[in-house]
Amino acid sequence: MTALPRRRKAVRRAEILGAAREVFIARRFEDASMAEIAARADCVEGTLYTYFRNKRDLFDAVLTDVYDALIADIEPRFASLDGTADRLRFLIARHLQIAVDDPGISAMLGREARGGQPYFGSKLHALNRRYVQFMTRTLSDGVERGELRADLDLAMARDFVFGGLEHRVRDLLGRGRRIEPARMAREMAGLLLEGFGQRAAPAAEAPLERIEARLARLEGELRARAR
Amino acid sequence: MTALPRRRKAVRRAEILGAAREVFIARRFEDASMAEIAARADCVEGTLYTYFRNKRDLFDAVLTDVYDALIADIEPRFASLDGTADRLRFLIARHLQIAVDDPGISAMLGREARGGQPYFGSKLHALNRRYVQFMTRTLSDGVERGELRADLDLAMARDFVFGGLEHRVRDLLGRGRRIEPARMAREMAGLLLEGFGQRAAPAAEAPLERIEARLARLEGELRARAR
Amino acid sequence: MTALPRRRKAVRRAEILGAAREVFIARRFEDASMAEIAARADCVEGTLYTYFRNKRDLFDAVLTDVYDALIADIEPRFASLDGTADRLRFLIARHLQIAVDDPGISAMLGREARGGQPYFGSKLHALNRRYVQFMTRTLSDGVERGELRADLDLAMARDFVFGGLEHRVRDLLGRGRRIEPARMAREMAGLLLEGFGQRAAPAAEAPLERIEARLARLEGELRARAR
Amino acid sequence: MTALPRRRKAVRRAEILGAAREVFIARRFEDASMAEIAARADCVEGTLYTYFRNKRDLFDAVLTDVYDALIADIEPRFASLDGTADRLRFLIARHLQIAVDDPGISAMLGREARGGQPYFGSKLHALNRRYVQFMTRTLSDGVERGELRADLDLAMARDFVFGGLEHRVRDLLGRGRRIEPARMAREMAGLLLEGFGQRAAPAAEAPLERIEARLARLEGELRARAR
DNA sequence: TATGAATGAGCCTTCATTCAT
DNA sequence: GATGAATGAAGGCTCATTCAT
Q1: Residue B1: beta bridge partners?
Q2: What is the mean pLDDT of residues C102-120?
Q3: pLDDT value at position B6?
């Protein structure tokens, strides 16, 4: 055939990447075939190998693209948020938004994280770390600022967030339910921050503060007199 | 040619099941090969098919074994627990124990839940539902008894528990860290029940009483001096 | 299990034969499995081999049964028929009757005649020859008695009969049409005996008569003159 | 490793088709193996699948080739024939010629028509219909023109022709006899057109000629005397 | 650079037959 | 005599990758 006349490499590369993305979303890594990617990219299999060393390479490039776009989108918006609760809600909502915009991507990311290949040390793991940083920072800042418990185990907290998200998304998608990122993020963040338990609270904050204020005042007064 | 010495069918079956278990732990379903299972069970591939109709059947048999043992172990111990917190800690610890006893199994279960085959409706899904029942009951009982927030979204809570567990285990195992089920269960349950947020109150009743005692003492002293 | 208590060999053999017959009717030789036959005969595969040397043997035994029954049924009735046309109609009708009574059998016989194994020299061929004898005799007797053309090529005629029957049955069965042996036998025999061709005859006789008239006239005239 | 020298796709395809043809002639569809075809085409099995989607596809391609060539050969010659008897003789001779040129093909076609797969609706059936059209037209035209009995059952007649041919060829080939298409076509057509039966009337040609000779002689003699 | 034909190892599954029990 | 567990060869098919063109 007449090859598409003089495509610049970058363009061709992008086409292949796009095709690969579609295929890797539709099928897991092992089940995706280079033949299908080539067909969708409108070239032959051999051509793929002039742009990517092998299938894994191509897959990693797709992942990089996905994460890069994701991070580029999150970065500025995250930077403008200060409160821990706000940040948490934003990150959860943004994560849910992926599942809404591109359900295949969520599935792919979750799926491939436990692939046949070792996850730790993989490209996917490295990329994921960058993404997870936003959450890690949110949590550690939260502790520093006194908005989260001082004894919070950050890694454990992070796992609850992402693990919960993953299961939640899978469950809802599996049942064909709609996901409303904002509302659901509010609920999830609320549950995480306050816990499942029944708040003895009502007894809670205002009265206690008042009592302690009274106490402090009294003790100060006594110390003064003691002098 | 040389037939292996005859064994009782049940024995052979168990051998094959054991071999299959090892292989399915090491590789995901699609990547596991009947050839490898046969080799590990010290028989030829054909033999496998006299015990199991096909690869999926064999896989399901492995899963059934795992879950049956798990559920049989949990059932009586769970039945003897009443408090929501106790139950939660027990179930979490038991789940973590799987990862300690048989790290491959955790990975396998998590992995296959997102397999290529539709998860919903699969044997795995059916088995998993039975297992998850313990948690579901714990949570709904907890709400009924007023030990958990009345507005708790049970499905969401369940997803946080299992999602968090899954990520936690994967993370720790991936980093080669040791897991201490009891301690970790305490921490996880605590975090889930109380939330990430800073307790304005640490509150609790005993301290409150102590404060009031302190207060009473001070006030009494003041009154004494005032005289 | 408790084996069926002391079945006499002949009974068991008959059971196996019956099961084999069902299976060989349903599937062609290669596709029929000893396992299925054993299951249908309610015994295990090994048992089959105590009654028949191998699958082919078993198949041949089934065929022998079929042909023996067929021949035993035809023999006396054929013996009572004299006219060539009657015999032909009877044999055709009887053949069609097989397709009506036991469509599987016709299919099986036709099918296996061109099996992978060489047909000539096979057991099936030998059995078939006995069956075909009835037709062969009918045709050769017919010629001898002057009821069939003296120059009839017997083998060719026989092939037309059975080839036609085979195709006819297959066609009708394939289209789901009903077969009425008697009526169809009449039609087929008629067509074979009289041919496809338009009888020149009607046209033929008038001219012949004219010739004979002419001849008679001449001869009479000659006789007259001779006097 | 060492790749065969590149060939043009069409060439390779033809080689594979040729190899497949040989194998499908030698064995029935189910018994033919892709391995054998590959070996005969001097390539590996995988290569076959770059030309044909699967075994059935390859088989159908072989059949299509055979029928296309056959029909292309018959078409123009058939078009030039008018009389029913001529056409019939031609078609029969042509059919026999297949058995002479390529004895395997006849066997294959007959064999596969009763394959395990349903024949009706198969590619083979579709192709065969086109081939059979020539005979169908011959017969229906024959009736229309008054050259065949007006009450001729066309389907039945067609089955006699092809059934007879099939059996005849199988019988002769099976016995290692030579086939002489032209002579045999004359005989077969004759038998079909005139039937097996003793012609009471047509008295046939030789006698008629003898009579007319006698008649001519007599009349000549009389005329002589009259002078 | 792009091509695309060829590779070949590997996969799951079937089944007639054997033989120790 | 009957059993039935074990065999092992064979089958169709897939696919990432290579390399001559």
Answers
A1: none
A2: 73
A3: 58
Rounded to whole angstroms, the distance from the CA of residue A8 to the C1' of nucleotide E21 is 75
What's the whole-number mean pLDDT along residues D62-77? Answer: 93
- Residue lying closest to nucleotide E15, CA to C1': C33
List C-alpha distances in Å: D181 to A132, B199, C135, D92. 83, 104, 26, 8
The shortest C-alpha distance from A98 to chain B (Å) reads: 18
Q: What phi, psi does C148 have (nearest 5°)?
A: -125, 160
Contacts of D146 in chain C (CB under 8 A): 198
Name residues 35-94 of chain B within 8 A of A (Cβ): none
Q: What is the pLDDT of residues A154-177, one digit of tens each?
A: 999 999 999 999 999 988 988 889
State the Cα–Cα distance between residues B189 and B85, nearest whole angstrom: 7
CB contact under 8 A, A166 and B167: yes
Task: Specify the pTM.
Answer: 0.78
C23-34 residue pLDDT tens: 998 888 888 999
Do residues A42 and A78 make contact, with C-beta atoms less than 8 angstroms apart? no
The rounded mean pLDDT for chain D is 85
**Could you give the domains of chain B?**
1-52 (1.10.10.60), 55-196 (1.10.357.10)
Please give, rounded to a whole number of angstroms, the shortest distance from the CA of B196 to a CA of chain A: 4
Mean pLDDT by 10 residues, chain A (227 residues): 55 91 88 92 92 92 90 94 94 95 84 64 79 94 91 95 94 90 96 80 54 67 66
- Picking from C198, C205, C218, the nearest residue to D215 by CB comes out as C218
3-state secondary structure of B200: coil
Question: Is C153's CB within 8 Å of D201's CB?
Answer: no
